[in-house]
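Predict structure. Chain length: 400.
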Amino acid sequence: MKYAVIVPDGLGDWPIAELGNKTPLEAAHTPNLDQLAKEGILGTLQTVPPGMYPGSDVCGLSLMGYDPKSCYTGRAPLEAASLGIKVGEEDKVFRCNLVTAKGDILEDYSAGHVSTEEAKELISTVSKAFGTKDLQFFPGKMYRHILLCKKGNDFEVQTAQPHDIQGQKFEPHLPKGRGSDIFTKLTLESRSVLENHPINQKRTKEGKSKANMIWLWGGGVKPKLEPFHQKFKGIKGGVISAVDLLQGLGHYLGWRVIQVPGATGYFDTDYKAKAKYAIEALKDLDLIFVHVEATDEAGHSGLAQEKKKAIERIDEAIVGPLHDHLRKQGSYRLFVAPDHYTPTAKKTHIADPVPFIFIGSDTKVKSGKGYTEANAKSTGVHVEKGYLLMRRLIEGWDAI
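Prediction complete.
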C-alpha cells in the first residue's frame, strides 16, 4: 500500500465578485480534483482545535496525524529544525520576518516577497548590528528568518502575526510581556540599519517594496514529537515543501525531507518537479506529503486570479500525475486537503473546516460531486478532529 497527501495551502476561500461570485476553487478548471472528489469521499475537516490559531504549524500537525493540543510548542522551532539550527532545551526561537513599514503602518508582511539572496544580506546586517551570544539571527528563505534566544526564560512575550496586521498601525501590535522591551527595541531600531541599505536603495529604484524592518513573532520551544514510523506501524514518510515550517515538521517526525529544484514557495514554483520528485520518492517510501504554498501566498496578497491559476497548476501538474502513478502501481490511498482557509478578501487565515477528498483503491463511497467548498459542506461528511484523517489514510476510512 502506498499513501499520498496533497496540501494546497490556504486553498479555502469565499465567493469573489471578480470571479463571478465564485470562489477561486469554483472558478478554476480542475478536472483531476473533480474526478477524485466524485469517485471518492468528499467532506469537511476541522484542522484547528478550539482556541488555537489557524496557522500552518497547527494545521500542518493535524494533517500529519498529530493532535496540536497535546504537542504544539510554537512555530519558529519547527522552522529552525529545517535550517539545521540547534535548539537547546532552555532556548526559545522566534520567527523574524523582513517586512515593509511605511510611516507607522506595516504595509507588507513579506517586504514584496524579497528574494532569498537579498534577504540573506539584510539579515546579516541586522545580525552585525544587534546580534549577541544570547540573541542570534539566522537567515532563512525569502522574508522568513529566525531569532534564537539562548536565555529563553527571559522571554515570555505575546506577539502578533504580521500577515494579520497588514495596512494597520503596527505600534499597538508590538510585543507585550516579559522581555518585550528588548523585542520592541530590536524591531524599531532595525529600521535605522535597513532603511537606507544599498539593497533597499536598489529595490526602491526598481519600484519594489523595501525590506526595512524586522518583525518578531511565532515564538516557542523545542517540541517533543513521537516519530511517525513509531506512531503509524512502521510507515516511512517523506515531505516535499519549499517552506521551512513544513520541512521542519518533517525533520521532527523522522520523515525524509526532499529538496526539489525550482520549488520556491511562491507563484513561480515548479509544480511539475514536485510531482516528479514525489513519484520518485514513492519507490522506497510508503507515504509522501506534498505541500504547495502558492495558493496561500495568493490569499495573503488578495490576488484572486493568481489563486485560481495556482489551483489549476496544482490540479494539472501534481494531482493528475501523482494519482495516475498511484493507480498504476497498485493499492493506494490519497487525501487532498488544504490546511486552512486564506480568503483573498481577508488576506489572512480563518479556522473554518476545510474541504477534503479521500480516495483509494479500497474506497467504496462515491460522492458524485466536484471539488468545491460548497459541495464538501453539502455531503454532511465531517471529521471533527483533523489529525484522525491521517489515521484513516493509514488504517482505512472505516478504521475510526
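Summary: The chain has two domains: 2-72+224-399, 81-220.
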